Amino acid sequence: MSLIDPPWTTLVDVATLSAALSSPALRVVDARATASTAVRVVDARFSLADAQAGSGQYAAGHLPGAVYADLNRDLADLDRSGHGRHPLPDSDAFAATVGRWGIAPETQVVVYDGSDGSMAAARLWWLLRLLGHTRVAVLDGGLAAWQAAGQPLQTGLPQVPALPPYPGRFDTAQVASAEEISARLKHAPGWLVDARAGERFRGEVEPLDPVAGHVPGAVNRPFALNVAAGRLRDAQELRAELQAVIGGQDPERVVLMCGSGVTACHLLLAMESAGLSGARLYAGSWSGWVSDSSRPVATGA
What is the C-alpha to C-alpha distance for residues 211 and 214, in angstroms, rounded to an integer? Predict the structure, then answer.
């Protein structure tokens, strides 16, 4: 049984994580810490503009004991076509990666990126949940908050004893398909929420994908509205705003999307933190939707 009880399942703050990493029984730099008692920290920094930037930043300095997760290599399978810019990785391949990071079912995982969790800490948080691992939380404020609190960084690779592949498989029921999206296009608004910035949703600009616009009937909730100064906003405020966005829909009937299935995970994190549990993701998102020219596209508000 993990020594973190109750487990952290959405967010953890800097002070709480720092105290855990200072515990001889929990800190990942202690060779005596086993997978069942350790807090495993994972650095998921990534830049869409420069795919090598995240690993370079990790090498320059990271949280004590943190391993590195690369969005393109570890959190996606770029060889899959027709599923957007960041297709889901193969379930077995991801389970093997998780094992190499020293993560077992009892391990408390903390994921961080540069700041708010959107690139790509929340993506890894979701993938681990998809695999069946619930003991995972995002560091609120990420590396920026850690450094602002005067906490130390390390360089070099940590010595992490590799474990067998994680004993789980992706729960595909949590993932919406393009076929489901197509079948629900005429449902009342609120069931499909797009986390991209407003100008991309409206089709005014499209810097990444070949077609601009959004899925007809989707509503827009830019993920950036969920944060203030790089941290997730108050849960009660978010709950009121997000309930208005989904229009009274049961969260379990709601599907979230974005450009490629990355920042939608941050919107899911916000919903879970606000007590609106059960929403699912359209993993292919906009880039997957427009890979088939026969699918309809809307523009404007």
Answer: 9
213 assigned to some structural domain: yes
Last residue of a domain, one of 170, 200, 233: 170
Question: Are the beta carbons of 170 and 91 closer than 8 angstroms?
Answer: yes
- 265 catalytic? Reply is no
* Integer CA distances (angstroms), 64 to 92, 108, 109, 228, in order: 28, 15, 13, 26
Whether residue 17 is found in the same domain as residue 161:
yes
Query: Per residue in 131-163, pLDDT tens?
Result: 999 999 999 999 999 999 999 999 999 999 999
What are the backbone dihedrals phi and psi of residue 228, each rounded to the nearest 5 degrees, phi first? -140, 125
* Residue 195: domain span: 173-289
pTM: predicted TM-score of the whole model, two decimal places: 0.95
Residue 71 sits in the same domain as residue 106: yes
* 251-277 residue pLDDT tens: 999 999 999 999 999 999 999 999 999
User: Do residues 222 and 161 share a domain?
Assistant: no
Which is catalytic among the residues 75, 195, 258, 268?
258
